[in-house]
Automatic annotation (TrEMBL):
Divalent metal cations. Prefers magnesium or manganese. This is Malic enzyme. One of its GO terms (biological process) is malate metabolic process. Keywords: Metal-binding, NADP, Oxidoreductase. It holds the Pfam family malic. PROSITE patterns: MALIC_ENZYMES. Its cofactor is Mg(2+); Mn(2+). It catalyses: (S)-malate + NADP(+) = pyruvate + CO2 + NADPH; oxaloacetate + H(+) = pyruvate + CO2. Residues 374-627 form the Malic enzyme NAD-binding domain. One of its GO terms (molecular function) is malate dehydrogenase (decarboxylating) (NADP+) activity. It comes from the Eukaryota. (S)-malate binds at residues 259, 514, 558. The active site is at 206 (proton donor), 277 (proton acceptor).
């Protein structure tokens, strides 16, 4: 067997190649095309790739000729594949260039990278590395002999060993760092471990631990996990996007770090949020990791502590605002669409209120955009309320809602509740809004304050006397549902919870702020102060609570229920825009996954152990709505959208290599 290791550098210079008389320099575009041509060349004279067209062995004397004809080679190979009827797309219509996702789990695949990964480079490629799980045959074929100890183990044993190691760490941040190291060395093992132990490790890779990770990101940073786009890259953002090695991007999560969870401005160190979110897109929603791109836009920070921190990794300047900020974001949005096309999903994450609403409003009609803080939080909370109504009885329009917090999350949730109420009852939206009251830092939002309110608060300014304190608002408005999205910890005091319990037989109390330290109250406080009558859920996880001999399991209104399935539904339908009806569909699908057994345990959300099934159902409902609204571009519509969603999901099981 003859094997060649070819890469782009083989075409940048022909010195040292037999029969080459002069040196030739290729442009970056030529190099990329050359790389594309190489990817369709077989690595051995006996190995069979996807088509017979790829079975020719490239001899060294033909390197120069291949380099000069790379474009033609790529085109002819693509044509040959099409003629033979090869499936070039996988679930969601992604181009399956290497045949990996089309193959069944028992078929052999080739670990293609920029070159055919082999030897030491294969062990350093997180998408293809299997560690000690490489078989003896694979070790011979890919030059791994001597680079690994002789033992051959299963992926299951690797999971068991890794779990044992992770559980030795008592500090959550140490677990986080170990998990990130695993993701960067063996992606399939990382995702298999996370999927199979999601309830244990979701709080590690996501909230609350990710908040501490962002605060200390400069100190723990070892290797880049996404793209950093700063003011230094003005005018060159398209070029920066092209530096990312993966080209078939389907989901981008982007932040500017100004409002990270409830922790404030963390600048460039907010990168932990996009990385964590996209890990969940893969683990919970089945989006391929190679199709995910985390991005942080660094326009400076107003956090003096970070600016004076010697380990801070971002721009050391105050935040850019106004036109300078808008121009940079516009260049970014334009470059993303130009580089990745119309159907790439851009998820805005942890932008400050004033920018979050403006960006969503500006680009929702031209791009496939989604703001998880505004729309994702709203969808998951609405799902919880729909579930709670099965315990309470009655309908949505019979409830009165009081919010503490009138930012992105609060107003986003309120608007989606009003939309659902309007659809259920045919009430005008303005009338539905009158059932919802918001309290901000200055007190109850009322019409007499309208002139001084930010634009996104104005729809919630109702006729009422001004009220300064939350407890007074509870006693006067008499809400059936109290929702906290303030980012201010311990603001649902004993007086507030007891007032809710005196007004309602089963008060609904949702303390949504993250991380745990910023939660408006703890689960124990909610159950104890309400004499065990509260229907409670929080944004961050709390342990079960025992009260008067009964165990209460607090629900978690975690956005991770919604955004992975929503994203998968948008991808697999080829949606070109996000519509509010898709969010309502996602809420309804999630609420339907709550069983009677869950209700009996006090849960208004299903357990995360079934999250992939939940995500598939949400994806199917979202895709169906996209087709119904005429926003889907992937035709024809699959007959069974749930099965199709499941077939689209990334599997972390190791593949067998030629």
């Amino acid at each position: 067997m003859t094997t060649f290791s070819l890469n782009q550098s083989s075409f940048l210079s022909c010195s040292g190649v037999s029969g080459c008389g002069k040196r030739r320099s290729f442009s970056n575009l030529d190099a990329r095309r050359a790389g594309l041509a190489l990817k369709v060349v077989s690595v051995s004279t006996t190995g069979r790739v996807v088509t017979e067209e790829r079975n020719a062995v490239v001899e060294s004397k033909k390197l120069k000729e291949m380099g000069e004809n790379a474009t033609a080679a790529a085109a002819s190979t693509s044509e040959a594949i099409k003629k033979e009827g090869e499936v070039l797309t996988v679930g969601g219509g992604v181009r399956d260039v290497y045949g990996e996702d089309c193959a069944t789990e028992d078929q052999l695949v080739t670990p293609w990278s920029v070159t055919v990964a082999s030897g030491y480079s294969l062990l350093r490629d997180p998408l293809h590395n299997k560690g000690l799980a490489f078989t003896d045959k694979e070790r011979d074929a890919h030059y791994l002999r001597g680079l690994l100890p002789p033992a051959v183990v299963t992926q299951e044993l690797q999971v068991k060993k890794t779990l044992n190691n992770l559980r030795q760490y008592k500090v959550p941040l140490q677990r986080y760092m170990a998990m990130m190291d695993l993701q960067e060395t063996n992606a399939r093992l990382f995702y298999k471990l996370l999927i199979e132990n999601v309830e244990e490790f979701l709080p590690v890779v996501y909230t609350p631990t990710v908040g501490e990770a962002c605060q200390k990101y400069g100190s723990i940073f070892t290797r880049p996990q996404g793209l950093f786009i700063s003011l230094k890259e003005r005018g060159k953002i398209l070029e920066v996007l092209r530096n990312w090695p993966e080209k078939n991007i389907q989901v981008i999560v982007v932040t500017d770090g100004e409002r990270i969870l409830g922790l404030g401005d963390l600048g460039c160190q907010g990168m932990g949020i996009p990385v964590g979110k996209l890990s969940l897109y893969t683990a919970l929603g089945g989006v391929r990791p190679s199709a995910c791109l985390p991005i942080t836009i660094d326009v400076g920070t107003n956090n003096e502590q970070l600016l004076n921190d010697e380990f801070y990794i971002g721009l050391r300047q105050k935040r850019a605002t106004g036109q300078e900020y808008a121009d940079l974001l516009h260049e970014f949005m334009t470059a993303v669409k130009q580089n990745y096309g119309e159907k790439v999903l851009i998820q805005f994450e942890d932008f400050a209120n004033h920018n979050a609403f403006d960006l969503l409003s500006k680009y929702s009609s031209t791009h496939l955009v989604f703001n998880d803080d505004i729309q994702g939080t709203a969808s998951v909370v609405l799902a919880g309320l729909l579930s709670a109504l099965k315990l309470l009885g009655g309908s949505l329009d019979e409830q009165t809602f009081l919010f503490l917090g009138a930012g992105e999350a609060g107003t986003g949730i309120a608007e989606l509740i009003a939309l659902e109420m309007s659809k259920q009852t045919n009430l005008p939206l303005e009338e539905a809004r009158k059932k919802i009251w918001l309290v901000d830092s200055k007190g109850l939002i009322v019409s007499s304050r309208k002139e001084s309110l930010q634009h996104f608060k104005k729809p919630w300014a109702h006729e009422h006397e001004p009220i300064r304190n939350l407890i007074d608002a509870v006693q006067d408005i008499k809400p059936t549902v109290l929702i906290g999205s303030s980012g201010a910890g311990r603001t649902f005091t004993q007086d507030v919870v007891e007032a809710m319990a005196s007004i309602n037989e089963r008060p609904v109390i949702l303390a949504l702020s993250n991380p745990t330290s910023q939660s408006e109250c703890t689960a124990e406080q909610a159950y104890t102060w309400s004499q065990g009558r509260a229907i409670f859920a929080s944004g961050s996880p709390f342990d079960p609570v025992k009260y008067e001999g009964k165990t209460f399991i607090p629900g978690q209104a975690n956005n991770a229920y919604i955004f992975p399935g929503l994203g998968l539904g948008l991808i697999m339908s080829g949606a070109i825009r996000v519509h509010d009806d898709m969010l309502l569909a996602a809420s309804s699908a999630l609420a339907e996954q709550v069983t009677q057994e869950n209700f009996e345990r006090g849960l208004i959300y299903p357990p995360f152990t079934n999250i992939r099934k939940i995500s598939a159902n949400i994806a199917a409902r979202v895709a169906a709505k996209a087709y119904e609204l005429g926003l889907a571009s992937r035709l024809p519509q699959p007959q069974d959208l749930v099965k199709y969603a499941e077939s689209c999901m990334y599997s972390p099981v190791y593949r067998n290599y030629r």
